[in-house]
Amino acid sequence: MTQEEIIKASTDPEFLGYLEVREKDVLESKKISGLYEVLDSLLILDLQEERINKIYETILIVAFDSIEKKLKEKSKLTLDNDDLYYIRAFYEHSIEKWSRDDYKGAKELFFILSQIVEDETLLNAINIKLIACNAKEDMEIFYDEKIQHEQEQREEKYAYFLLDFKFDTKAYLEENKKVLEDIYKELKPLLGV
To answer: Same structural domain for residues 85 and 120?
Structure first.
């Protein structure tokens, strides 16, 4: 959307009415794809923070419940259908914890993601962030110094994740294989959901 379209949408009573009805519907249905659709609209239109927070909290509850079920079933999540949104919610929450210097919380969430994501590209990126949180690397410094800001062209489903680094991913993971094994061993009890 252009800035002009955003301004028009944010003042269009018909669109705002539709958005309010849609928001109520998704809060009742707890359909995560719909929750994200509303959240993204609220964020783009820069609408009331309390509405944004309510949708985000609901997303986290739905995602955590679904991921807990996956852990119990010992099944994996793909980047298809609603699984993408569960992964996105968990990933964004991990990044949020990391940005607040909650290294332990971020590390635990990245670890759980590493155990349930079935996508090698994303899994490698998650493991790199897991290693960074374990080393208590500042997120902003990590972002500035280690993230390749010109991301590779990929399918849209990858747009929510930072996947490209200023170093060779496979070589980095190989160099830190022992560190990653130790992290996995340390956090394995978390899987006893």
So the answer is: yes
